[in-house]
Amino acid sequence: MVELNILDTEQKNERTKNIDILSTLEVLKLMNDEDKKVAYAVEKELENIQKAVDITYEKMAAGGRLIYSGCGTSGRLGILDAVECPPTFGTDPELVQALIAGGVMAFVKAVEGAEDNQELGAEDLKAIGFSEKDILVGIAASGRTPYVIGAVSYAKSIGAKTISVTCSTNSPLTSITDVAITLQTGPEVITGSTRLKSGTAQKMVLNMLSTSVMIKLGKVYGNLMVDLKATNEKLVERAVMIVRTITEADDLTARQTLEACDYSAKTAIVMLKCNLTAAKAEEAINKANGHISSIIS
């Protein structure tokens, strides 16, 4: 039996105990006031987030993958972060993956009982060939979800590094991971509804983790996403803008250069800045491990 009364995420918020009789604006103001606490909760964990970023970068720079494991809201947040990496940073879809209890269908519809299956967490990792070269991030607001604990336990058993992102102190999950990020967001506006402040805090941490790692991997130049995949009209225009901003080329030149290198903004930038062919530019980028700052500076 789960003892909900001992979980931070299940405590009653005294400030919202009469929320059901408030006006619409009063409800919104109260929710907004509670949400303001989230960024401060994240700030208090910056040192642990730094550790998570550095260890993840180390693994990914050596050829490993970043894998998220979660259930419900936590699992869906992992999926949201993973699926945004390819278009934003030009990564292979296999590089950042998210596993959710109950499989992909659980993203849109709850799969009863899946989160209570500890063995399933391990089996899902085995199914993607998870190894000690990869890194696992277990996401669970309560810090006690069996599916995630099962995944983390398996990852540790084969020598992989593990990170937890929770919103409950002294949870089982935080005690078994190499890096524990514990976001003390306080009781939810609606008791136990961790899709609210807890989910917001977890999303902020995942944003920080993946974005910081991608910056360190050379996926960003200045603050521009030079490795984006131009898979739609908006992203094509963004690629043109990025190339023009960095190289000061005119619109026509930027577009022609992008067309010559399959719309790789990074390649186009090196071509224009160093007067190279697409093949030579790609060779230079590979030698620089993707960091174009060392090529065009």
From TrEMBL:
<dbReference type="InterPro" id="IPR005486">
    <property type="entry name" value="Glucokinase_regulatory_CS"/>
</dbReference>
<comment type="subunit">
    <text>Homodimer.</text>
</comment>
<dbReference type="GO" id="GO:0016835">
    <property type="term" value="F:carbon-oxygen lyase activity"/>
</dbReference>
<keyword id="KW-0808">Transferase</keyword>
<feature type="active site" description="Proton donor">
    <location>
        <position position="84"/>
    </location>
</feature>
<feature type="domain" description="SIS">
    <location>
        <begin position="56"/>
        <end position="219"/>
    </location>
</feature>
<dbReference type="GO" id="GO:0016803">
    <property type="term" value="F:ether hydrolase activity"/>
</dbReference>
<comment type="pathway">
    <text>Amino-sugar metabolism; 1,6-anhydro-N-acetylmuramate degradation.</text>
</comment>
<comment type="function">
    <text>Specifically catalyzes the cleavage of the D-lactyl ether substituent of MurNAc 6-phosphate, producing GlcNAc 6-phosphate and D-lactate.</text>
</comment>
<dbReference type="GO" id="GO:0046348">
    <property type="term" value="P:amino sugar catabolic process"/>
</dbReference>
<dbReference type="InterPro" id="IPR046348">
    <property type="entry name" value="SIS_dom_sf"/>
</dbReference>
<feature type="active site">
    <location>
        <position position="115"/>
    </location>
</feature>
<dbReference type="InterPro" id="IPR001347">
    <property type="entry name" value="SIS_dom"/>
</dbReference>
<dbReference type="InterPro" id="IPR040190">
    <property type="entry name" value="MURQ/GCKR"/>
</dbReference>
<dbReference type="GO" id="GO:0097173">
    <property type="term" value="P:N-acetylmuramic acid catabolic process"/>
</dbReference>
<dbReference type="Pfam" id="PF22645">
    <property type="entry name" value="GKRP_SIS_N"/>
</dbReference>
<protein>
    <recommendedName>
        <fullName>N-acetylmuramic acid 6-phosphate etherase</fullName>
        <ecNumber>4.2.1.126</ecNumber>
    </recommendedName>
</protein>
<dbReference type="GO" id="GO:0097367">
    <property type="term" value="F:carbohydrate derivative binding"/>
</dbReference>
<dbReference type="GO" id="GO:0016301">
    <property type="term" value="F:kinase activity"/>
</dbReference>
<comment type="similarity">
    <text>Belongs to the GCKR-like family. MurNAc-6-P etherase subfamily.</text>
</comment>
<dbReference type="GO" id="GO:0009254">
    <property type="term" value="P:peptidoglycan turnover"/>
</dbReference>
<keyword id="KW-0119">Carbohydrate metabolism</keyword>
<keyword id="KW-0456">Lyase</keyword>
<dbReference type="InterPro" id="IPR005488">
    <property type="entry name" value="Etherase_MurQ"/>
</dbReference>
<comment type="pathway">
    <text>Cell wall biogenesis.</text>
</comment>
<keyword id="KW-0418">Kinase</keyword>
